[in-house]
Amino acid sequence: MEAFAIVLAAGKGTRMKSELPKVLHPVGGVPMIGRLVGKLEAMPITRIVAVIGHRGELVKKCLGTRVTYVQQENQLGTAHAVHQTERLLSNRSGSTLVLTGDTPLIRQSTIERLLADQRAHTSAGVVLTAIVPDPTGYGRIIRDSASGEVVDIIEEKDATPEQKSITEINTGIFCFDNESLFQALPGITNDNAQQEYYLTDIVKVMRETGISGGQKRFEAMVLEDPTEVMGINTPEQLEEANRAFYEHIGIFA
């Protein structure tokens, strides 16, 4: 069975206070996206697609022919970004990983387990989650109280006070059944506080349209060490990521 990977790398990363695209800032001496792509290249993945936008020519210069590129002309959200890969990946059977280009510390073994989990359960999708003491700023995982199945992911700006108290958060990393992914994407709307097309809304869309539910569940895989997916949005967080890399170089390399 084929596997594909979509790497989201179109964001400006304005909080980095740099003209350089966020994903090109180095962690452990290697641009973030280059470190992530290196882990994907070591896996049996048929095609790696990078979604580029702001100063995308610099990302192309960094990665060269290691990946296939699609352009997200307007930054309309993560679901919109994934939708740009439709002409390359739709109508293909297999599994599709969706990763953010600013997660250089994620272990290859974690990506492999996520892929294996989706295949083992023939899930419509699996979201990588983490339990954190302070979930501020992250999307919250909503589970069915009886079955434990993931039924929604709520972005913080759209969350109720009760939902904000949930400490299981979305890492932004998924593995989908490829056909289910592209079947559900057109159903995502931008009816939210940011007026963006959130990939997280795919959980609700799949459930409402019958793509998931019943035997074909939407699952979650809980990450043991949230450091692997720490947010890197500011120079301070970049410094923290580099510190974590060098302190545990055998783990995050």
TrEMBL record:
Superkingdom of origin: Bacteria
Reaction catalyzed: N-acetyl-alpha-D-glucosamine 1-phosphate + UTP + H(+) = UDP-N-acetyl-alpha-D-glucosamine + diphosphate; alpha-D-glucosamine 1-phosphate + acetyl-CoA = N-acetyl-alpha-D-glucosamine 1-phosphate + CoA + H(+)
Keyword Transferase: yes
MobA-like NTP transferase domain segment(s): 5-129
Keyword Cytoplasm (UniProt): no
GO terms, molecular function: glucosamine-1-phosphate N-acetyltransferase activity; UDP-N-acetylglucosamine diphosphorylase activity
PANTHER family: BIFUNCTIONAL PROTEIN GLMU, NUCLEOTIDYL TRANSFERASE
Protein's job: Catalyzes the last two sequential reactions in the de novo biosynthetic pathway for UDP-N-acetylglucosamine (UDP-GlcNAc). The C-terminal domain catalyzes the transfer of acetyl group from acetyl coenzyme A to glucosamine-1-phosphate (GlcN-1-P) to produce N-acetylglucosamine-1-phosphate (GlcNAc-1-P), which is converted into UDP-GlcNAc by the transfer of uridine 5-monophosphate (from uridine 5-triphosphate), a reaction catalyzed by the N-terminal domain.
Protein name (record): MobA-like NTP transferase domain-containing protein
Source species of the chain: Paenibacillus pectinilyticus
